[in-house]
Amino acid sequence: MADTAAQKxxxxxxxxxxxxxxxxxxxxxxxxxxxxxxxxxxxxxGVQVVxxxxxxxxxxxxxxxxxxMVGSEGLEVIPELQPIDNDxxxxxxxxxxxxxxxxxxTLRTMGCETLxxxxxxxxxxxxxxxADAHQFRYKVVVVEDCTMVHREKEPxxxxxxxxxxxxxxxxxxxLPLAEIREKYLKLK
Length: 188
Description:
With 188 residues, this protein is of the alpha/beta class. The chain has helices at residues 3-7, 30-45, 103-109, 122-135, 158-168, 177-184, and strands at 9-14, 48-54, 88-92, 114-120, 139-148, 173-175. It has six helices and six strands, in the order αβαββαβαβαβα.
């Protein structure tokens, strides 16, 4: 991959914040190491990493997300994925990573055309972020083994159904990390 291709890509890591309970031994924690491998590969290839997390204000009437309150520790990216160097952090206000923020502006000013998307939850934030990215005319790529439905009582087939919509309706690529590395994250 040429440097110009790397410069036109960004890895978007969704909702990997402390407030979502990503703790050793906790539900879904096994995915954290895989997302870390993605982040490391992106940085080695010179691809921009953007962390997008939910944020709530005291005036919001969304009690189930109080752990994501402005100024709280819950907003911080989990230690295993701690932002370094030129990682960017963007806060979203609702489901999509593009919801009520400057993510699109930030990506466009960097010249990004391809978004490599990972994180949680596949049938929620990942799906809606992919839909908005598609509408904004980005090339969308989902790292299949770096996303999951982050609920212990997962609706049957939720991840597979969301990935089917992402692949067939939004015309995105859905690939495992090994293929993403080979195709999009080759070393500089």
